[in-house]
Each structure stands twice: as structure tokens, then as C-alpha cells.
Amino acid sequence: MRITGGHLRGRRVPVASLEGLRPTPSKVRQALFNILGDIHGQSMLDLFSGSGVMALEALSRGAQAVVSIEQHPKAIHAMRRIQRDWQIEHWQLLPMRVEKGMERLSGRYFELIFADPPYAAGISEQLPLWLQQHGITCGKLVIEESARYTPNWPPGWQCLQSRAYGDTCLHFLHRMDT
Question: How crowded is residue 174: how many other Cβ atoms within 10 Å of its Cβ?
Fold first, then answer.
């Protein structure tokens, strides 16, 4: 798997061999960053970071800072190795469950929050509520989910658009003013 854009374009991302780990395909990453447009100087929160490829894509394309939350020790080890070997700055890795990481980030604002939770597990629908619970706000919230699963978003949240790419679907959410 390779970085698809920015100053790290073409670099191969080593992926830990873990059950259930499914890095976002390059076609989906390219489409997402084309939709988002210029992210120079923006902050990003990457939930269920896995391989770290989304964080690396964002940093490669000019994101100012990225926080990645991932609970699996092998995945965190692989991301730390990339961070060291590629001399990546402004990438904070939080080795913990997403819920615990959100506690640590309470009250923070991110221009972009990207989440890739386990597919069809009901976690997608919980994420907006967890963000609210911890006072974490954002300009854009993008949740990756199986294209075969239609999340039932919580009250107060609107899905502005959903884009399917094969088995993957990106949902762009917005918190409605109450």
C-alpha cells in the first residue's frame, strides 16, 4: 500500500498483519481527499487508525497536525516505526481504545475527524454521540463504513452525503444546530 498524494506520495506503508485490519483502499483515499480539497494547515483526528495510512495521507497533503487513536499494540508499533523512519512530525499516537482517547481529547476542535470503525458493528452510529459527550467538535466528520450497511445516525446529526466505492462507503456528517 502506498501514499497517494502530497510530499510522501509513492512511499510504501508497511501494514501490520492483524485480523480485522483493512486499510482504506487507495481509490477511496484519493476520492476522499479530492472531495475535501485543500487541507493545508488543518488538524485531523483519526479514529480507529489501524495502519495509520489516513493520518499519513493527511500529513502528506499538508495537514498541520494529526492525532491517531488505535488500541492494537502491533498497529501502534508499526505506526511508531513509520513515524521514526520517515521522520514524521506533528503526528500524535494515542495507544488506547477510542472511547478512552476521546476522554483525553475532551473539548478539542479538529477541522477534520475521520473514523474507520469495525464495519456493521453499530459503532458508526455511536461515534457522533461520543464526540458530543466529550465536547469534541469538528468542521467535517467522515465515517467509513461497509457499503452494505446503512447506519441509523443519532438525532441532531445529518448525513450530508454518502459515497460508495465498491464495498466501502464514506458518510459525511454534520451536527445540526439545536
Answer: 15
